[in-house]
Amino acid sequence: MENLLSLAFDNLSSYDGMKIRKGLRQVEGLLANICLSRQETSKDRRASMARDPGQEQESPPNCKNLSELSDDPAFYEFFKLQEGFEWNVAVRLVNTLDRLLAKGGDGSNDLLILKALDLIQGAMLLHPPSKALFSREMYMNLLLDLIEPDFCPAIQSATLLTLVTALIDTPQNTRTFESLDGLLAVTSLFRSRGTSRDVKLKLIEFLYFYLMPETPSIPSAAPRDSLPGLLHRSPSKLAKVFSSTNAGSKDDDGRPRSAGDGTTRSQEEKQALLGRHLNSVEELVKDLRQNTLFNGVVS
């Protein structure tokens, strides 16, 4: 697996679009092989055909469920490799995304950005501790830059989905998002007349997600080698009980007090923060609690 990652990383570090595309495909192939069930052997296939002669000769591989994935040796090896800087896929993909942004916008470059965003989501889902990258302002700013009006609707939608993946169950990242005026960026895009309806739907989905109750992050280990502490956790530690955090305090003016790294905010606190930029927050919260999503919110 190290050899496969090494080849992919060499291509991803290039400034040549063709090599970057090749590296993204190599990463995609690796992640796909981890997520998909192994193909049946010829013997298994013949036995299956004997039981049901009417079935197709070749059937697509099925996705593994979570229990199968956690016991899979390939996934375990991949997870262990992600614990260090040298083999961490998310780090390489984010750095590639940074270079793609610097190249400017054209059709082929946009496709590379979309593929990089898709793979960053996959890397974070397969290795949740990699989400800790987005607690750093430089990486969170990359995502906020990609929802600017300069980018096409497809990139804006993919970025919002990546942002949700980075924030879910990771309050520390949400606090970074808030401190960088992420709410202002999101609501400004929503209010803009130039924003497409599909992107507005994604923005509403994001706001519903943002207003949901937060889950405390898994306690982080001590950071080392310039990596966030969460990147050094082993698979067996991911299921440990979450640590308790403090939330709910307000300052003398009644506004939510700034939360420390990794601490959660209540729904009321986040509602107050979002209310500074959007007038219809109460309706969003009401719909969220009643599960009547998207009820006339997007015109």
From TrEMBL:
Residue numbers spanned by region Disordered: 42-64, 243-270
| Basic and acidic residues bias spans | 249-258
Superkingdom to which the source organism belongs? Eukaryota
Q: Which Pfam families match?
A: CDC14
Q: Which InterPro entries match?
A: Cell_div_Cdc14
Q: Which PANTHER family match?
A: CELL DIVISION CONTROL PROTEIN 14
Q: What is this protein called?
A: Cell division control protein 14
**Source species of the chain:** Xylaria hypoxylon
